[in-house]
Every structure is written in C-alpha cells, then in structure tokens.
Specification:
5 helices; 7-stranded antiparallel beta sheet; 23 strands; single chain; 5-stranded mixed beta sheet; mainly beta; elongated
Length: 404
C-alpha cells in the first residue's frame, strides 16, 4: 500500500508546511478573519479536559492530520510536533489554558488543559509559612481542597492565594473560628537550667545519652516521663550530679508572648586597630521568648526562641595587662507540640573546662599540723553540658502537658 502522502507531495514537504503553520498558530489571540475550510466544519468533537503535573510530558494523537493549532497561553504549555497527527505537550507551570486543534476535512477539537504542581510542594510551603495552623490538603483530580480552621479572614485568603500558585482550581473549605468573649486561659511554664560534668558522670559510671551535643550546636528533644533520657536525669539527680543554675517560672496567657533572662554582663574586648582595643559590655546567660498556644487536640504548642551566651575561657583577648574571656553564642528557634506528660529539653551547648584537684604527697601530707601544706595539683580536662528543660504546668480544667 502506497503512502498516502506520496500522491500529493513528499512527507518532508508536508512536515515543513506543518511546522510553519504550527509556529503561526501558537499565539494568544486568534487571527482576525480566520476562514473555515472550504468544505466547512464537518465535525466538532466535545471538549476534552487534560490534567497534567508540572514538567510532565503528554502525547496527543488524532485519526486525522493537523493543519492548525491555537494555544491560549504559551507560558503554561509548550507544544512540539511529533508527526502530522501527533503533538507533544510539556507542562511548564501551574495554570489553566485552552488548546484548539484543526484537522483536514474540517475536524476540530478543543482541550481544556489543567496544570498543577506536586501536592507535596504545596504541603511543604504551607507548613513553613503557616506553621501555627493545621491545614489539611487533599488533591481532587486537577483541583486541591483546603480544610481546617483559621482565626482570620485574611489568613484564609492568604492560604488560598498560595494554593493557587500550585493548582489552577482551589476548593477553600477553611472555616473561621468564631471569636468568643471568654478570656484566654493562663499558662504556666517551669524553666530549669542545669549543668552536668562528664568527669562527674564517669566517676558514677553514667554516660551522657545525647551524642549529638558534640557538635556544639543547640538541639531539642521532647521528653516523656519515662525513657532513656528521663532515666538518666533521674539517676544524675539521685547522685547529686545536676547543678541547677536557675529555675525561672513563666506565667502568661494563651497566645501572649513571654520572656525571661538570667545571667549578667561581661567586659568584652573589641578591636579598634592593629594594636589597640576598647572594652564594651556583653550580655551572658540565657535569654528566651516563649509563645504558648493551646490546640483543640489537647496539646500545647510552644514557639520557643532561646539565645544562650556562654563565657568561653578557652578563647580570650588581652587588653594591655588585662586578659578577658570571649562570649560563645547559641540560637535555636523552634515550634513544638507537647502532649500531656511531655516537656521540652534544649541541649547541645557543651563547654570545655579545667578542673584542678589536690592530691596528697606520700609521707609529707601525713605530718601533724604541717601535713596540709604539702600537696600537688592535678589538672583534669572536663566537658560540661548545659541544658534547659521547659515543663508546662497543668491548668485547672485543661488537659495539657504536666511537669514530669
């Protein structure tokens, strides 16, 4: 059987003509005075809906040769001819557009193309930008449905606007929380700041359970009333190895930010030239801001912003005849949900210190009266862990986290 293109013109000529007309057809507005084929439109096929994910490729084929193509928005979709009866679609970005295809003999076909981004990307953005809200995202064909509760109309609109950047059709089922005249419940938080020595732990055959603290970067851990860390802290307490630095109590209201500060000020040398310097006061200690929010599921959500300035004697600066230590800073902003019986532990701020212990000298230290004057000093390199535990207290009538 002879090729059907052979009787009229070579296939290469037809493909060149197809590419030329295809390039003219990709425009945002239909040309003025567009004329129908001489025989008229013989068949108008029903509109077809095509759903695609961003960067996806799709092949459309027809039982006729395509003579003309119209694309409403070429910024959303790229068209590439494969054969006279096949067309490749490549989704560029989320949105909705229309594609018209005309074929030989007056056939025409319309496509409604819906392009959306991966739903995982939308979930990630909503989690980052609206971390204090519980927004559920569900994909329905080429649409996305948002559900959950928000407090303000503006927030509801902002979430919908973000979703429209990923999906052309958004079903906004977010409901507004009705404001009540009830005063916000009080929230009480107990913050305890501790130090513990690795040298003291070794003497009692105890081991620090959090190995990631070696990095010197602040980390966090949710503590339950039972578990490896809880058992370790209990054993350290029983052996009197925990040194409590401070124990501030934070009393605030739900949704109201509170803060506390412990420590003082230290003179710090600031370079003012090659050989000169000046002294300014630098805050050291613990500064922390806490924002509590009670959730409908009974948990307490804490937004915590700690800043720890530690005195680092291993790095010092000298100004004339005075040697001053430096300040080591740690920061770690986090958002955490605490259930009943849970508390928050901040750690990962170890400091190197030197311990000097007296050792008796044989015979000389045993002399009456003078024996105490004879001894030698032993230098011991130690590492001290600083950690903070924030334990929410139970509010009457509410099931929130309790102090373990």
């Amino acid at each position: 059987m002879k090729n059907r293109f052979h009787n009229s013109w070579p296939f290469a000529s037809l493909l060149a003509l197809w590419l030329a007309t295809f390039a003219q057809a990709q425009q945002k507005e239909e040309p003025q005075g567009f004329a129908l084929p001489e025989a008229g439109v013989k068949s108008v096929l029903p509109a077809v809906q095509v759903e695609m994910e961003m960067s996806e490729h799709r092949i459309l084929s027809w039982p006729f040769d395509v003579t003309r193509v119209f694309l409403a928005d070429d910024s959303l979709l790229k068209l590439e001819p494969v054969t006279p009866s096949k067309l490749r679609l490549r989704a560029l970005k989320p949105g909705k557009t229309r594609l018209n295809v005309w074929g030989q003999g007056g056939n025409t076909q319309t496509y409604e193309v819906l392009i959306h981004a991966p739903i995982a990307e939308l979930e990630k953005v909503l989690k980052e930008e609206f971390a204090d809200l519980e927004v559920a995202v569900r994909q329905l064909a080429g649409s996305v449905m948002l559900s959950g509760y928000v407090k303000e109309v503006e927030t509801r609109t902002n979430i919908e606007s973000v979703a429209k950047q990923f999906f052309p059709r958004v079903i906004n089922n977010l409901k507004l929380i009705q404001k009540s005249d009830v005063e916000p419940e009080p929230v009480k938080l107990q913050a305890s700041i501790f130090e513990i020595s690795h040298y003291d732990l070794a003497k009692h055959s105890l081991k620090w359970p959090l190995k990631t603290s070696k990095t010197g970067q602040m980390q966090h851990q949710v503590l339950a009333t039972h578990g490896e860390i809880a058992d370790f802290l209990q054993a350290a307490y029983d052996n009197k190895l925990l040194r409590k630095i401070a124990a501030p109590v934070i009393s605030t209201l739900e949704g109201r930010r509170a803060s506390f500060e412990t420590g003082g000020q230290l003179p710090l040398v600031v370079a003012a030239g090659h050989t000169e310097g000046k002294v300014r006061l630098q805050q050291w200690g613990v500064r922390m801001q806490v924002l509590p929010t009670r959730l409908t599921n009974g948990k307490l959500r804490l937004g915590v912003q700690p800043r720890i300035n530690q005195i680092d004697v291993t790095k010092s600066a000298r100004l004339e005849t005075v040697t001053l230590p430096s300040i080591r800073t740690h920061q770690h902003d986090l958002l955490i949900d605490l259930a009943e019986g849970e508390s928050l532990m901040l750690y990962g701020m170890p400091m190197d210190r030197v311990i000097r212990e007296k050792e008796d000298l044989p015979l000389l230290s045993d002399l009456p009266l003078l024996g105490e004057s004879f001894y030698k000093t032993k230098r011991i390199d130690d590492k001290v862990e600083l950690f903070i535990i924030i334990a929410p207290g139970q509010t009457p009538g509410e099931k929130v986290a309790t102090t373990p």
